[in-house]
Amino acid sequence: MLDICKVHKSFNVGTVNEKKVLRGLNLHLKEGDFVTVIGGNGAGKSTMLNMVAGVYPVDSGKITIGGNDVTKLPEYKRAKFIGRVFQDPMTGTAATMQIEENLALAARRGKSRGLKIGITKAEREHYRELLKTLDLGLEDRLTSKVGLLSGGQRQALTLLMATMNNPQLLLLDEHTAALDPKTALKVLTLSAKIVEENNLTTLMITHNMNDAIKYGNRLIMMNNGRIIFDVSGEEKKKLTTADLLEKFKISAGEELANDRVLLS
Question: pLDDT value at position 90?
Answer without folding.
Answer: 87
